[in-house]
Design brief:
By secondary structure, this protein is α/β, with parallel strands linked by helices. It has one domain: Rossmann fold. α3 crosses α4 and α3 runs parallel beside α5. It starts with a strand and ends with a strand.
């Protein structure tokens, strides 16, 4: 579903060139969670950005459903991101003046999904995320774990193939963090998503099918 082949990302620092990600290869299948661990500054966010077509690699290839997207024109990338990827971040990025259901519906407006279809999809996703009784609440009335679950439901609203999650439990307490990880596991299996999770949370290992360590831009598979 998602594959990186020997991807490298170089940045210039003064007169020096630094490899933030250095010849990394990874493959993630449908229904699988791949966990990337590593210290801050190791290149996790840069790697996720390349996998999600936000950044272009300096060299190497990124393949989505078998198609090499690393060399496509910049103007095409937004359509690829919109159709193929859902993104979840440490910060929830919810609209405070919209209810949980309305926040999820916003992801479908860009695709011009009819109003009733948007509403049904949002209700189904929020129910699947354990928020069936909270979908008409505003973010200020939701816990941190509930906000993150709304953000995950929104990421899935356009039915992407791939979900990329960058430190999704970092702002949550222990119980809420574990609930979010359990939900990601459930969604990967039940909805057939390929999930790439970057996290410092040691409990995330128990929910992952494969575990990688990224240090100094180099990726090593641990499991």
């Amino acid at each position: 579903m998602l594959e990186a082949r020997w991807v490298t990302k170089h940045y210039r620092q003064g007169t020096n060139i630094v490899a933030a990600v250095d010849r990394v290869s990874i493959a993630v299948r449908e229904g699988e969670i791949a966990l990337i661990i590593g210290p801050s500054g190791s290149g996790k966010s840069t790697l996720l950005s390349m996998l999600g077509c936000i950044l272009q690699p300096t060299s190497g290839a990124v393949l989505v459903a078998g198609y090499d997207v690393s060399g496509v024109p910049e103007r095409v990338l937004p359509r690829i991101r919109q159709r193929c990827f859902g993104f979840v971040f440490q910060s929830f990025h919810l609209f405070p003046f919209l209810t949980a259901r309305e926040n999820v519906e916003t992801a479908m407006r860009l695709q011009k999904v009819p109003r009733e279809a948007r509403r049904k999809t949002a209700i189904d996703l929020l129910s699947d995320c354990g928020l069936g009784q909270r979908m008409d609440f505003y973010p200020a009335s939701l816990s941190g774990g509930e906000k993150q679950r709304v953000a995950i439901a929104r990421a899935l609203a356009a039915d992407p193939f791939i979900l990329l999650a960058d430190e999704p439990t970092a702002s949550l307490d222990s119980a809420n963090g574990e609930a979010v990880l359990e939900m990601l596991r459930h969604l990967a299996l039940a909805r057939g998503k390929a999930v790439v999770l970057a996290s410092h949370d040691p409990r995330a290992r128990h929910f992952a099918d494969s575990v990688y360590n990224l240090a100094d831009g180099r990726l090593n598979r641990l499991r």
